[in-house]
Amino acid sequence: MIRSNAPRVTTVKAVANLGRQWTRWKTYDKSTLTIEALTEKIESGLGEDTDGNPLRIDIKAKTVSTAAGDLPISPLLDPTWIKAKRRESKDKPKPTGRFRKKLVNNPYAKALATPLRRCSSTNVLLPRFFLQDFELVKHPTTGGLWWAPGPLSFEYLHDKKPKPSSPKPETDAENPAPSADQTTEATTTPDEKSTPPEATKGSDDKAARRRERLQRGPVVSYALSCKPLIESIGTRANPQVKLTSLRNGLGAPSEMRGAVWREDMAGLVLETLRRFAVDRLISPTETMRQALKVMLVPCKTWDEVGKVDGRGCVLWLPNEESASREYATLDIDEAVYGKKITVHNLPWLFGEAEVERLRSESSIFRDNAILVLKQGSNEDMARLHMLLWRLQGYLAPAKQLG
Predict the structure, then answer these.
(1) C-alpha span between 96 and 266 (Å, rounded)
(2) CB burial class (10 A; 0-12, 13-18, 19+) of residue 235?
(3) Region Disordered: start and end of each range (predicted)?
(4) CA nearest 357: which of 267, 284, 288?
(5) Which of 71, 256, 266, 353 has its CB surrounded by the most CB atoms within 10 Å?
């Protein structure tokens, strides 16, 4: 008989230890482990008392407010105890080497790293950066379904401060088209309209600290981010046939068959992109204002562009009417990285109205014709580069699409 030398499990303790070696610890983001975030999450699950008031936790007194008075909380609901039991996730390692650092901060690499989506008109599979998303929204007055530009194309580029409400002008039309501001509001803040007033009672301060995040709608369609293509969708007798060609069965509800496509959709997308780009260059926030002081470098001649370190693109304000209106690049022969940089013709890119607003509200654009927008580790600067490049591609002539 051949004796087996395989290890044998002889005790219950040894059997229990076999499963421990495969244990995986769950880690949590640093922002979710603060006392304020943990308290908010616990209170959201406690609900309300018999009087309809939300239950609140007093961290210092270790009590919870109820209709019968303050009662001691369970240790399992103590934010301090929960924070001590949870492990914080480690930060991502910083890139090493000059090439990796430049790759991480490269806006074109960020554009290629976006998720893949399929164009419903051309059936082309591309990163989401090169596509324009459209979603179904309800008209603010009539309640009908309309196709509107989705929020994913303007992710983290909208104004975080709520705008004051203004009275709507009266109109005699039965189904007036929603304005650009109404469409943007309907697509970027869906959660605010769907939340009842009772759910926000007593939580205004915590809601202000909560970070806003844009989410896609239930019915979303994608098309190439190109003005001639979006204009061609509006010329069809039934635009939603192409927009919903990839949906069938339960994914194609009958309500969206009568959705309205705006005739000026291509102009609406262009107007929104231009307004967001100029708003970021004017720098409405203090963070962007401080970043642009360092990242925006004026140059008197084109030879000075090659001497700027960390150059990303050139913002050009030509005075000649015969200046090149299409895409152009500038070659830097002596450079190791960035031998070819983009030159954005701002009058062609933004239009005369937005350029006048840019010059009137920013002295650096009013006094200089050539400016270099540098690249850096600032995420806002990378998104500004991506927005300018997206606008450049949106205005590309149809002959360059092939």
Answers:
(1) 43
(2) exposed
(3) 158-214
(4) 284
(5) 266
Integer Cα distance of 138 and 30 in angstroms: 37
125: confidence class by pLDDT, cuts 50, 70, 90 = very high
What separation in angstroms does the CA of 31 have from each of 34, 46, 81?
6, 21, 17
pLDDT tens figures, 227-280: 988 888 866 655 555 566 555 555 555 666 677 888 888 899 999 999 989 988
Three-state helix/strand/coil letters over 235-299: CCCCHHHHHCCCCCHHHCCHHHHHCECCCCHHHHHHHHHHHHHHHHHHCCCHHHHHHHHHHEEEE
DSSP letter at 95 equals P
| Pairwise CA distance, residues 396 & 229, whole Å | 11
Residues with Cβ < 8 Å from 163, sequence gap 6 or more? 181
Residue type, 3: R
pLDDT tens by residue, 207-231: 443 344 456 667 788 889 999 888 8
CA-nearest of 110, 54, 160, 165 to 390 is 110
Distance CA 243, CA 220 (A): 9
Tokens of 16: 């229990």
- Phi and psi at 3, nearest 5°, equal -85, 135
Q: By CB neighbour count within 10 A (0-12 exposed, 13-18 middle, 19+ buried), where does 231 fall?
A: middle
CB 381 within 8 A of CB 109: no
Burial state string for 47-86 with b = 16 or more CB within 10 A and e = fewer than 16: eeeeeeebbebeeeeeebbbeeeeeebeeebbbeebbeee
d(CA 375, CA 109): 13
End-to-end CA separation in angstroms for the chain: 76
- What torsion, rounded to 10 degrees, do the Cα atoms 266, 272, 275, 281 define? -110
Structure tokens at 35: 């006392």
For residue 230, what are the contacts with CB-CB under 8 A and spacing of at least 6?
132, 223, 265, 266, 269
Cβ distance 350 to 273 under 8 Å? no
Element (DSSP H or E) covering residue 133: strand 131-138
φ, ψ (nearest 5 deg) of residue 304:
-75, -15
Any idea where the domains of the chain sit in the sequence?
29-86, 101-157+177-271, 284-400
- Whether residue 38 contacts residue 46, with contact meaning beta carbons closer than 8 Å, is answered with no
